[in-house]
Amino acid sequence: MELDTIEDIDYCRDMKFKDRAVGDPCLPRKYVNAYSVASAFGGPEEGGWWYNEGEPIASIPIHTKKQEGEAKKLLREILPEKIGEPRTTMGGVDIDIVVQERFAEPYPKRKPRYE
User: Fold this and answer.
1) Spatial distance between the Cα atoms of 85 and 97, rounded to a whole number of angstroms
2) Closest CA to 95 of 114, 76, 74, 110
3) Phi then psi for 20, rounded to 5 degrees?
4) What is the pLDDT of residues 6-64, one digit of tens each?
């Protein structure tokens, strides 16, 4: 079942969450997530190294390719591509918009180690 009609959306709105099961078409299949991504200093090894840290800004649940396109378009309209001067000593963040199978979460979960 695709959720492209008003009747489909009404069906999902009226259904109680506790009655839903894995695979239910009313549960989001994917999310369009937006992150602010900044460079973080990893350590002094080999002259210094950097890694990316992502903080969630938005997470939009989607069911269809059409909804994916609409969600990406919406986020691109309301969010800038960057804030400040990312990846420079001036500082700043890039704004990344990605499709994932989970709600947006900060990354990485742990600071990477130099090996």
Assistant:
1) 18
2) 76
3) -90, 150
4) 455 555 655 555 555 555 666 667 999 999 999 888 999 988 898 999 999 999 998 88
Q: Which long-range contacts (CB under 8 A, 24 or more apart) does 49-57 make?
A: 49/114, 51/108, 51/111, 51/112, 52/107, 53/106, 53/107, 53/108, 54/96, 54/106, 54/107, 55/106, 56/104, 56/105, 56/106, 57/95, 57/104
Backbone torsion region of residue 61, taken as left when φ is above 0, otherwise alpha when ψ lies between -120 and 50, otherwise beta: beta
The strand pair at 30-43 and 82-85 is best described as: unpaired
And the tokens for 67?
A: 């909804």
Helix (H, G, I), strand (E, B) or coil at 78: helix
Amino acid identity at 67: Q
Q: Quick check: 97 and 33 in contact, CB under 8 A?
A: yes
Distance CA 94, CA 82 (A): 4
Q: What is the pTM of this model?
A: 0.73
> Distance (Å, rounded) from C-alpha 32 to C-alpha 102?
9
Question: Could you tell me which of 62, 97, 63, 105 has the C-alpha nearest to residue 77?
Answer: 97
